[in-house]
Design brief:
The structure holds 2 protein chains of 2 kinds. Chain A is 63% helix and 0% strand. Chain A has helices at residues 3-18, 28-32, 42-56, 63-66, 71-83. Chain B has 10 helices and 9 strands. In chain B, helix 1 runs antiparallel to helix 2 (29-42) and helix 5 crosses helix 7. Classes of the chains: A mainly alpha, B alpha/beta. At the A-B interface, helix 3 and helix 4 of A face helix 8 and helix 9 of B.
């Protein structure tokens, strides 16, 4: 598991834990599944984006992030943003 | 067949308005609107029943009559825009929370008229489509659909310096038709804190001249949780005279 994947899953795990849900593991099925199946509401999604900003030290709350449909998309997005 | 006295009184009131409009074709749209609204105020007993007809408390009558009247008046004078009062402009990137009154587009217009970029959270319902036709939003107003990405879109708008206007009340899931009990949800209050921007409370209402006016209060950049802020907001609504709704926190 690379650094970006680890950070994304850690932030997501924190949000899921607050909701009493189990963490997401780094299996390829999980990463490729539509983001919607995670059961995150509007506030969770914002918390997730803000958490990613803190974890990666870059801006995530953008219209580009809204195009991400899977966790794999989010990880790719994080890698692109931090490589800038 | 019996006729509801409130229904009959309201029909009578509308006939008065129609007659008033018919007799004054020379008046400008604004002057005609003002004089019609004076007829409404002078005959308030005929119009107050409009609230009961819609299942609302009497305190809501002006807003309901305003919706009906502006829609009717706009057919007579298609370019007419209902007048809005001056609104204290919040700093860039503020969240303005309100409750459903149907006058939210008036808040948006008051701000855009002052050059403030505005985003408005909305649900695509037939009612909201109708209100858009009545209150004609400025083309620069951005509409954010109330879906799972709503708060992300809202945060993007706030960072872009827009003022966000949104209603934070919802029908109770267990009793969706009740108008005297409403739920206040937490996300908008949390949004202001998480996005670190000013939170303002706003309650639009219709004044005695038929203008859309506003009561506003700034809660600053919130540091408290959404529970405290919702209590604060309810106190604001009650101080504004909106005492007929029992608010539930969900």
């Amino acid at each position: 598991m690379n650094d970006a994947t680890e950070k994304v899953l850690k932030v997501l795990g924190g949000i899921l834990a607050e909701k009493g849900m189990p963490p997401v593991t780094a299996g390829s099925d999980t990463l490729a599944a539509p983001f919607d199946v995670l059961g995150l509401d509007s506030m969770d999604r914002l918390d997730f984006a803000m958490g990613l900003e803190d974890a990666f030290g870059t801006v995530f709350v953008t219209s580009e992030m809204l195009k991400c449909k899977t966790l794999a998309d989010i990880i790719s997005f994080a890698e692109r943003e931090t490589a800038r | 067949m019996t006729t509801d006295p409130q229904d009959e009184a309201y029909r009578e009131g509308r006939r008065l308005i129609d007659e008033h409009i018919r007799q004054r074709p020379q008046l400008s749209a604004y002057d005609l609107f003002r004089s019609c609204w004076k007829v409404i105020e002078d005959n308030a007993d005929k119009f107050k029943g409009r609230a009961a007809l819609g299942g609302f408390p009497e305190g809501a009558w002006r807003i309901l009559v305003h919706h009906d009247f502006v829609r009717h008046f706009s057919r007579e004078r298609p370019n007419f825009l209902p007048p809005v009062r001056d609104l204290t402009v919040p700093k860039a990137g503020a969240v303005m929370v309100s409750v459903h009154t149907g006058l939210e587009l008036g808040v948006a217009r008051a701000l855009t008229e002052k050059g403030k970029p505005v985003s408005l959270v909305y649900s695509p319902s037939p009612q909201n489509r109708l209100r858009s036709q009545i209150y004609k939003p400025d083309s620069k107003t951005q509409f954010i659909r109330a879906d799972a990405d709503c708060l992300l879109n809202a945060a993007i708008a706030l960072r872009g310096g827009r003022v966000l206007i949104a209603d934070c009340d919802h029908p109770l899931p267990e009793d969706p038709t009740a108008s005297s009990v409403r739920a206040l949800k937490r996300p908008l209050f949390d949004l202001a804190r998480v996005a670190r921007c000013e939170l303002c409370y706003v309650l639009p209402y219709v004044d005695r001249r038929g203008h859309i006016d506003f009561v506003t209060k700034s809660a600053g950049v919130p540091e408290r949780g959404s529970g405290d802020l919702r209590h604060d907001f309810v106190a604001f609504l009650r101080a504004c005279g909106m005492t007929w709704i029992d608010w539930r926190f969900q």
